[in-house]
Amino acid sequence: MAALKKGLMTAMSIALVGTQLAACSSEAPKASEPSTDGKAPAAAKPVEITWWNFPNFQPLDGEVGKYEKQIIAAFNKKYPEIKVNLEMITFEGGPQKLNVAIASNTAPDVIYDAPGRIIDWGKKKLLAPLNDMVSREVQADISPAFWKQSMVGDQIYMYPLNTAPFLMAANKTVFEKIGALDLLPLNRPDRTWTVAEYEKALQAVKEKAPDVIPSGFFAKSTAGDQGTRAYIANLGVSRFLSEDYSKVAINTEQAGKALDWIVQASKDKLVVPGAASLAANDVNDLFLQGKLAITLNYSPVLKAQNKPLKKAQFEEVLLPFPTPDGSKPKLEPYLGGMAIFDNKDKDKIAAAKKLIDFIANDAEWGKKNLIQTGGLSARNSITGLYDDAEYKYAELARQFITDPPTVADGYADIRPLWFPELQRALTGQATGKEALDSFAAKANEAIAKAKAQAK
User: Fold this and answer.
1) How many CA within 13 A on the CB side of residue 344?
2) What is the average pLDDT value for the chain, to the nearest integer?
3) What is the pLDDT of residues 83-131, one digit of tens each?
4) pLDDT value for 309
5) Which positions ≥6 away from 366 have C-beta within 8 Å?
6) How far is CA 158 from each of CA 55, 341, 376, 455, rounded to the nearest angstrom?
7) For residues 207 and 252, is the Cβ–Cβ distance under 8 A?
8) For the chain, what is the radius of gyration of the CA atoms?
9) Using alpha carbons only, what angle is made at residue 375 by residues 166 and 89, rounded to the nearest 5 degrees?
10) How would you label 211-240 residue by residue, b for 16+ Cβ within 10 Å and e otherwise?
């Protein structure tokens, strides 16, 4: 009976959101409505909102936030009555700053972020629903998998904008210099490859380019954890969570052996030493300095964002994670979108919706904004934004995208449990299987607790 009840509730939720979305108009509300008595329309009511933004857009002239200021200037030509205060936050300190702002009731009105945090805020009733600004056209043009990451129940809390599959990346220039480019699977349309082929490529770097670290890994913090999750899951042919998100699925024998392989590969100098104390940014910096041949947390978005940060000149290529038999990998998607904190001011919420609609759908700025993120569009109909082989591959690699764990109950509590167990394995305090079993036990408790609280 419980299963039947749950199924009926799910069906009702889907039907309800379909009804709500179908009732939406294709445009955000206008700044002012025409007068019905022949008089000039009343001036729109002034309103002031705050937009906090991670560096989701590539900086102009090396200045972080300069592009966002141009967006606001263009937006104000259409909506002069809305003042937008921009505050740029970093990926390192931004999450904590947001936590403090939320705790002190000083959250921004608008945020451009990802499902991991946004959906958690939605579950805590901190956000304003966006159902009334999603048209039927947009609903149908964005895949159900992305809507799943943007909703809690029948409420839309994130307006999806840009996406990209999380992949690996290789320093193509290094492989060319050592005469080992043929060891990368670039001659295959889907670029799939086996763990044995991957290991052979790493070995070639170790032997022929001793000043370059063959591959990266990190376990200092939660940042970039989607890279380590997908890496181990594909090396070990395992899911991170079960298909219904009810429990951890990564603690298999094969995934345990995959983690053991990483530990041993570090000792064999195929993986960066000291990974337990390295953050994702540390490994990324090694790659940008030309000191790392293959990095495991990359995407077209990061490729674009990293371009001005490169400290060495080289060409990078995108690669999928290897699997034992070269079968199709399972990739987690990056999904970026905008959300509105419910600060109990309907005028601010309405103004924030206009800003989101402008950023996503303006005839001129919508496409410009996508390109400035370096990402692909979350909408299926918008393709071919870039004339670049790596972006074309990223479009193809979307076929490998699987459902990410970010929508699971308790994800915000599951996430910080991951990297300490990786550290235990890397420092020899546990085998790979023991570390993954310990993670599973703690994470399953977090999932159960979150599910109980949601009832």
Assistant:
1) 2
2) 89
3) 999 999 998 889 999 999 999 999 999 999 999 899 999 999 999 999 9
4) 86
5) 359, 360
6) 18, 11, 17, 23
7) no
8) 23
9) 90
10) ebbbbbbbbbebbbbbbbbbbbbbbbbbbb
**Contact between residue 309 and residue 291 where contact means Cβ atoms under 8 Å apart:** no
Rounded Cα gap, residues 145 and 212, in angstroms: 39
Place of tokens 């480019």: 181
Q: What is the DSSP string of 242-283?
A: -TTSSSB---SHHHHHHHHHHHHHHHTTSB-TTGGG--HHHH
Which residue, 204, 212, 216, is CA-closest to 169? 216
The CA distance from 375 to 146, in Å, is: 15
Q: Give the three-class secondary structure for 290.
A: coil
**What's the predicted TM-score (pTM) here?**
0.79
Pairing status of strand 167-171 against strand 316-319: antiparallel
156 strand-pairing partners? 151
| Number of Cα atoms under 13 Å in the Cβ half of residue 274 | 6
The residue type found at 214 is P
Burial of residue 193, with CB atoms counted within 10 A of its CB: 0-12 exposed, 13-18 middle, 19 or more buried? buried
Number of Cβ within a 10 Å radius of residue 250: 24
Q: Which residue in the block uniquely carries the two structure tokens 């001036």? A: 43
- Amino acid sitting at position 334: Y
Segment (H or E) for 159: strand 159-165
For 186, what's the count of Cα atoms within 13 Å in the CB-facing half-sphere?
Answer: 17
- Closest to 20 (Cα-Cα) out of 141, 134, 159, 144: 134
Looking at the predicted structure, is the pLDDT value of residue 36 above 90?
no
Give residue 152's identity as a one-letter amino acid code: V
What residues contact residue 336 under an 8 Å CB cut-off, 6+ apart? 56, 112, 113, 114, 160, 161, 162, 163, 301, 373, 375
Determine how β-strand 376-377 pairs with β-strand 167-171. unpaired
H and E: helices and strands count for the chain:
18, 12
DSSP label of 29: P
